[in-house]
Write a structure and sequence with these properties.
Structural class: alpha/beta
Strand order of the largest sheet: 3-4-2-5-1-6-7-8-13
Shape: globular
Helix content: 25-40%
Number of strands: 13
Largest sheet: 9 strands, mixed
Distance between the termini: 39 Å
């Protein structure tokens, strides 16, 4: 799916006409969240979520949290819905035998930071992770899921795009009204450049994604950049900041399969223009095996200007 352009424009006729459906969507979310008591996982649970459809940078936040917890001597496990995969779970993700078509691309990527469980039923996923030795859980997404009680809820906000036209899906990008969502959160991470009004009195951290060395110099390198993530423009901006000369930006749908015909077309153009094929770390796990060595993958990691509030919140989890 690609994010509709009108979501991030001034409210117009299309968003106005779709507003009643947005009200129904919001009501459905509210009913789901209010239904029944949440399951206690038996260990602390951190949820990393957002209030908008599309990418905001949740996955790098999950990576950062897993590393912080491991450095603190904890045993974190990550629980994911496994969007884009076919397995319902709960299943422990094994990159040696699972593919993105099985468990989704994000869970495969996250296995480098902590054990990952894919589970359509979050409560069952939490139970399986705890039985396997987790002493703290990180939920990748699931802020609007009522299955498990969260001890710390972190909302990730795209500072450049904010909350778009402020309307609810399908009239706009919001999954629920801002006041209700932020009312359940404990802190927010504002990702990238830009200013966004955050409702309430939440601690707000400022973060940015910084690329790691790729082994292939990007400074002044001609590249064909492609990305099938929620907000491809953020990746293209990262490449430009690294000095790459982007000959063409190929914005694919979020989690779009990287089929061999598609990759052959990109490769043909790259060879004709003497350019590198460059993509995100998350897209790279979906590449056909014979393209893994042909495409440069650019990993990014979260950098927080001031992580005091985050470290304090994590330290309070026992």
């Amino acid at each position: 799916m690609r994010t509709p352009a009108f979501w991030y424009a001034a409210p117009g006729l299309r968003s106005f006409l779709l507003a009643p459906l947005g009200a129904l969507y919001a009501a459905g979310t509210a009913r789901r969240l209010a239904a029944g008591p949440r399951v206690e996982a038996g260990v602390p649970v951190i949820c990393v979520g957002n209030l908008t459809a599309g990418g905001t940078g949740k996955t790098p936040v999950v990576m950062h949290l897993a590393q912080l917890l491991r450095d603190a001597g904890r045993t974190p496990h990550i629980v994911s819905r496994g969007y884009g995969g076919t397995l319902k779970g709960p299943v422990a993700v094994d990159p040696k035998r699972h593919k993105a078509a099985d468990v989704g691309d994000e869970p495969l990527l996250l296995t480098g930071f902590a054990p990952v469980w894919v589970a359509e039923n979050r409560a069952l996923g939490a139970k399986a992770a705890v039985a396997a030795g987790a002493d703290i859980l990180i939920f990748d997404d699931g802020f609007q899921n009522p299955g498990v009680r969260y001890d710390l809820s972190i909302l990730v906000v795209d500072a450049a795009r904010g909350f778009g036209n402020g309307r609810i899906i399908p009239a706009g990008p919001l999954r629920e009204p801002l006041g209700k969502g932020f009312g359940r959160a404990d802190l927010a991470i504002l990702m990238g450049q830009g200013e966004v009004d955050i409702p309430g009195e939440l601690p707000v951290l400022r973060g940015e994604l910084r690329p790691l060395p790729t082994g292939m110099p990007l400074q002044n390198a001609p590249v064909l950049a492609f990305a099938g993530i929620g907000h491809p423009e953020r990746f293209f901006a990262t490449l430009e900041a690294a000095g790459a000369q982007i000959l063409r930006r190929i914005a694919l749908g979020d989690h779009q399969p990287l089929t061999r015909p598609l990759m052959r077309r990109i490769e043909t153009e790259a060879l004709a223009r003497n350019a590198l094929m460059v993509t995100t770390e998350k897209d790279a796990v979906r590449l056909p095996q014979d393209f893994r060595q042909k495409v440069v993958s650019v990993p990014v990691r979260l950098h927080l200007e001031n992580d005091t509030a985050l470290l304090t919140a994590i330290g309070a989890l026992t």
